[in-house]
Amino acid sequence: MPAGFEHIELVGDKVRLRPIRASDAVDAYRLLTDDAVLANLAWDGPASEAEIADTYARWETEFRAGEHCALAIELADKPGMVGCINARFPRHPRQADIGYWLGVPHWNQGCMTEAVRLVCYLSFKHLDAARAYATVFTRNMASRKVLEKNGFSVDGTLRHHVFKRGEFVDSWFLTLLRPEWETGWEWFSPRLENIVFARGK
Fold first, then answer.
1. Domain spanning 5-197 has what CATH number?
2. What is the pLDDT, as a whole number, of residue 2?
3. CA distance 54 to 62
4. 197 near 65, Cβ under 8 Å?
5. Is 150 in contact with 177 (CB distance < 8 Å)?
6. How many helices and strands, by DSSP H and E, does the chain display?
7. Are 131 and 182 in contact (CB under 8 A)?
8. For residues 65 and 4, what is the distance between their CA atoms, to the nearest angstrom?
9. What is the pLDDT of residue 201?
């Protein structure tokens, strides 16, 4: 993970990824009050728009410091946040923990499949990742398919992984290794790419 970013913009056929901003809280809060989204997240969602604005302001600082790569998902041809995707490196500097959510109006349109492809491109091409991984509730087959379309494989099941709404929920643990990405997806490139690391890094 670099020591910091000035900017990231990655554009595919369907979506654009760019840094989260505190001002995105308005759109995010509206989308995250939908229980269909929250049911698939380990997180229970924000208590208020102000809470998520504070979180996003912190993420802006962490982005510039290279501590957390939190990106808003927009439609490629229309501004406005429709979801979020993160590449975190919490345990090892070369292992990208991928997490994401997408507003219900944009489900089943290939948006998240492309967003994951773009963030994997970022992780392997620019952040020197050796492995990308994600956890998905075992009841969320759609999210598993998004990852599998991008070359991820299920390594196993994490039993009682998350305590959610009064019960333990199992999760699948999926990974994509650098050699697998190089074999299957190295040909891929965004339609537009603008990545600026922090000055002097």
1. 3.40.630.30
2. 63
3. 13
4. no
5. no
6. 6, 9
7. no
8. 4
9. 46
- Neighbouring C-beta atoms of residue 195, cutoff 10 Å: 16
Instruction: Give tens-digit pLDDT for 27-67.
Output: 999 999 999 999 999 988 899 999 999 999 999 999 988 88
pTM, rounded to two decimals: 0.95
3-state helix, strand, coil in the chain (%, to 5): 35, 35, 30
> What is the DSSP-derived secondary structure letter of residue 125?
I
Domain boundaries, the chain: 5-197
State the pLDDT confidence band at 1, using cuts at 50, 70 and 90. Answer: low
CB 129 within 8 A of CB 178: yes
Q: How far apart are CA 57 and CA 24, in angstroms?
A: 10
Position of tokens 């997180």?
A: 43
Write down the H helix ranges in the chain: 25-32, 35-38, 49-65, 111-121, 141-149, 178-184
Q: What CA–CA distance (Å, rounded) separates 46 from 137?
A: 20
